[in-house]
Amino acid sequence: MSRALDDLHPSIRSMVFELLARFVEAGIPCMIVDTLRTPEEHQANLANGTSWTKRSKHLDGLAIDICPYETYNLHGPDKLKWDANDPVWLQLGEIGEGLGFTWGGRWKQKDMGHFELPSEVT
Length: 122
What we know:
The protein has 122 residues and is an alpha+beta fold. It is 37% helix and 13% strand. The protein is globular.
């Protein structure tokens, strides 16, 4: 799994830079957890329950997973241990949505740190 911003598709990269800058401006420094994923890595995520979709936008570099440093320092990389009710997620989600991202925190199966381009953009 990559955490490199250079591995993001060019169509999303500048938006992600803006997203991360807005998080810092809001006083919420975040860690990049995942950008580009190989098919094998994605299959492993499906098997361990940290991904729920067979065709993730991470496979094309069109999505990013982030986590506030504070949450990451407390609970580590396992997003299944992150508290989805922590108000910081709503603040991050609103920032991302304001920039045009689809936020995984609005999905039935919540993915609080996930941001991707809407399907009509890709």
